[in-house]
Known about the structure:
Blueprint: E1 5-8, H1 17-21, E2 24-29, E3 38-42, H2 44-55, E4 61-65, E5 69-71, E6 75-78, E7 85-89, E8 92-94, H3 100-103, E9 107-112, E10 115-120, E11 123-125, H4 129-136, E12 146-151, E13 154-159, E14 162-164, E15 171-174, E16 177-182, E17 185-187, E18 198-201, E19 204-214, E20 220-222, E21 227-236, E22 242-247, E23 256-267, E24 271-278, E25 285-299, E26 301-309, E27 323-336, E28 340-345, E29 352-364, E30 373-377, E31 379-388
Parallel strand pairs: 2-4, 3-5, 4-7, 5-8, 6-9, 7-10, 8-11, 9-12, 10-13, 11-14, 12-15, 13-16, 14-17, 15-18, 16-19, 17-19, 18-20, 19-21, 20-22, 21-23, 22-24, 23-25, 24-26, 25-27, 26-28, 27-29, 28-30, 29-31
Antiparallel strand pairs: 1-2
Amino acid sequence: MENIKTMTCTGVSLLFFFCLIVPSCLAYNVVSFGARGDGRTDSTSAFLRAWSAACQSTSQSNVYVPRGTYLIRTLNLNGPCRRRIEFRIDGTLVAPANYNAIGHSEFWIMFYKVSGLSVYGGTINAKGHGYWSCRKGGKSCPQGARSIQFMWCNNVLLKGLTSLHSQRVHVGIGYSSNVRVENVKITAPSGSPNTDGIHVQNSRGVTILGSIIKTGDDCISIGPGSMNMWIEQIGCGPGHGISIGSLGSSYNEAGVANITVTNSVFTKTQNGVRVKSWARPSGGYARNLMFSNLIMRNVGYPILIDQNYCPNNNCPRQNSGVKVSQVTFKNVKGSSSTQQAIKLDCSYTNPCTGIRLQDIKLTHNDRLRRPAVSYCRNARGRRGGTVIPRSCF
Length: 393
């Protein structure tokens, strides 16, 4: 078949790196299946045909998107596949200009139940500006689509992707395990609503490394059921920082545990590192959290635990049932744009316990030269080394 080309290690273009390291694999070029990189022709069906052929292959396979601009509507790339599979993008995928074309779907590009998956390079542009305008104008808008989602996937690598102007979340990871996200670039305007950079929920063993995230909401948001995460070398800003939560939106909710955020820089973000839970009953928890070696550059609340989250004031006189414990903030330095550089606002009925502040130096960017302060409520812990502003403990 002319649509399928068997690749061997001899004389193969570097574009097919996956095939370079596998003695014999099959490469499926979306152009051979009818895709056109002119930015106008709907190539969704061609992508689906290429994916189906690769997924059914008895050899390890490569779906290849060459240079060009490919118009793509909602794209469901379903597994399970018979062997490991690579999806390599050297071109750009763009959504239709009319936001309704993908806005009524929860996802724009979805990988579902795929194990042994590698996604490399390229750019995806969801053209979210029209959708954001709809949201800001208070109109009747669709739910909006996440740009790329991994759902029920295991052993995944996402590397070198650039995601532009998502309607909502840029990269979503749900019900998945052993996922590595590396060297991604995420961009949306600071005023774009709910455009989280990377959202992780109900997943284990997620690693996020060496990425630049500039967006209108959380750079990285970590939802219920997230366990054993490592986040390192992130450039965050603009955005709302790196957040665990919101937690406690429902009573029977999975907890969050064993999260590390380290060696990262926050620039002009609304928050730095944050734990956030609703002020309502819950059986959830957040524990064994490590935030270390962080630089804050004019950040609103560099260190924040907020257990009184209630944006619509529909939970008055309630207390968060989420148990927050064993949280360490270590070697956090830089500047705060608010006076409360450290804010630990915990639940009256479930005080935060095991909080540790060590080697903190945060100053207040203020023309009046007011010093930075710490605010603590229902928080129990200890300090170590030099802590500026002075710890509440």
